[in-house]
Amino acid sequence: MTIKDNLSKIRSSLPPHVTLVAVSKTWPVPDLMEAYNTGQRIFGENKIQEMAAKYEEMPKDIQWHMIGHVQTNKVKYMASFVTLIHGVDSLKLLAEIDKQAKKHNRVIDCLLQMHIAEEDTKFGLDEGELNDLPASAEFKQLKNIRVTGLMGMATFTDDEKQIRKEFMHLKEVFEYLSKQPETLNFRPETLSMGMSGDYKIAIECGSTMVRIGSSIFGSR
Asked: Which of 15, 60, 63, 91 could join 83 via S-S bond, C-beta 3.0 to 4.6 A?
């Protein structure tokens, strides 16, 4: 199967309201261009420098999503072009994104990452922190970021019941936050959950954005 065939198969399985992020981390530009030439315009990377290098080389109508853990000192390398930052897990990081976005006269869209998995290695905010953050005075002062939704990663397991439980929990929190008053920098519309192994369950649980890599580009 080629990248084109893989993309065609995945696209045909996605409902119209679900956005596909092609996770292109570690793959070279020719592979990304193969996906681009089939109409794919949203790519997800987990290392900022690699994403910045690909941004320089590739067509400028691509939307670049940062899907990995973000270190505050690296934000400046992507602030001029990144479309969406998925894994925002602290007010400190949001403040840095806001600061760097302001330098480029931009508003950068962000997703708050919630910790839903049982593994300790996954980053993210807990439910209490998620509920408190948008209401905080510091958050309300950030004019160059916009929180457009939530992101989460389920436990790496074959237990579908557990994966479904974690995704449903994230969906419940998302629905609660969606009912809060919208502000200029807080408009939760996107629920990013689901990867190659579990995206079908994620969609059943309400995901509106899936991050798929190995099912498109192959396994490393």
From this structure: 63
Question: For residue 72, how far is the Cα from the chain centroid?
Answer: 17
Question: 161, 201 in Cβ contact below 8 A?
Answer: no
Query: Max CA-CA distance within the chain?
Result: 52
Residue type, 82: V
Q: Which residues pair with 19 in a beta bridge?
A: 209
Beta strands of the chain (E only): which ranges?
A: 19-23, 42-45, 63-66, 84-88, 108-113, 145-152, 186-193, 209-212
* Among 36, 34, 63, 66, CA closest to 48: 66
* 211 strand-pairing partners: 21
Q: What is the pLDDT of residues 127-180, one digit of tens each?
A: 999 989 988 999 999 999 999 999 999 998 999 999 999 999 999 999 999 998
28: Cβ–Cβ under 8 A, 6 or more apart, which residues?
none
Q: What is the residue type of 103?
A: K
**Global pTM value:** 0.95
